[in-house]
Amino acid sequence: MKKESRNIVGVQVSDSANGTLKKEFRENEIMSIEMWKPKKNYSVPIFYTRSGNFTVLTTLEECGCAFSAFVSLDTWNLVNLKKGERLETGSYGGRLYFQNSSIHTGVNLKSMGMWDDLVSKAKEAEKDDRDILVNRIKGSGRLDQGQFIKASEIFYVDTWEPKRNYHVPRFYTEEGCFTAGLTFQSCKEAFPHFFPAYNGSLVNIDWVERIEEKIYGDTLIFKDSEHKTGIARNKVKYLNSIFKQ
Predict the structure, then answer these.
(1) 102 exposure class (CB count in 10 Å sphere: 0-12, 13-18, 19+)
(2) 125 vs 69: CA distance, rounded Å
(3) What backbone torsions phi and psi does residue 174 show, to the nearest 5 degrees?
(4) pLDDT for residue 4
(5) For residue 79, which of 44, 49, 122 has the smallest C-alpha distance?
(6) Which range has the top average pLDDT, 89-93, 121-125, 176-180?
(7) Which of 87, 132, 141, 181 counts the highest number of beta carbons within 10 A?
(8) What is the pLDDT of residues 195-217, one digit of tens each?
(9) What is the pLDDT of residue 20?
């Protein structure tokens, strides 16, 4: 593991001890990353961690909960006003342009009426240094490899439709446009230091206690946890050799 552990934005899918759902988890707390089907028509990564189970941001509503300092200036956006540079107004509402960029987003009349108050609250908010798992959206609409961006770098968030009837968050920044990391391949690229236990599973071997070998299949047992995950038989010998080092 890296010395500095990322604080990653996530959506908790299991209740925490005090009943409050968390909005982030530490990279060094991850035990394994696998794929999970919250609905029949799609799968998303799930992170099994020491402090609960998390998945990625999949809706604008979830982004609103995760980024409490961002504000909705129109029905379809969520804006980081700390990154705003200038506001152009008109009878229809306005456009907010962002720092060092020609990127802009819409501002409705209701938000225009509360503008000074919204900007004042944004200035008071602390800088958000959490990381978000994403893929860069290329000009063709194809996705680049999985990576992380800082929440503080976001200009605004809206949604796009990479597949028919599948709307997911899209993040605009000075460095380009990104979408939420929704695939196992994205995770493999963003977490290259995790061990591929089998197709569809990445493991943080720092938390593995032992390998339980049985005729019908082998299982990784994690330290002080009820969480278990499978391991391909051809990976067992290699992992055992690492443990013996």
Answers:
(1) exposed
(2) 6
(3) -65, -30
(4) 76
(5) 122
(6) 176-180
(7) 132
(8) 999 989 999 999 999 999 888 88
(9) 67
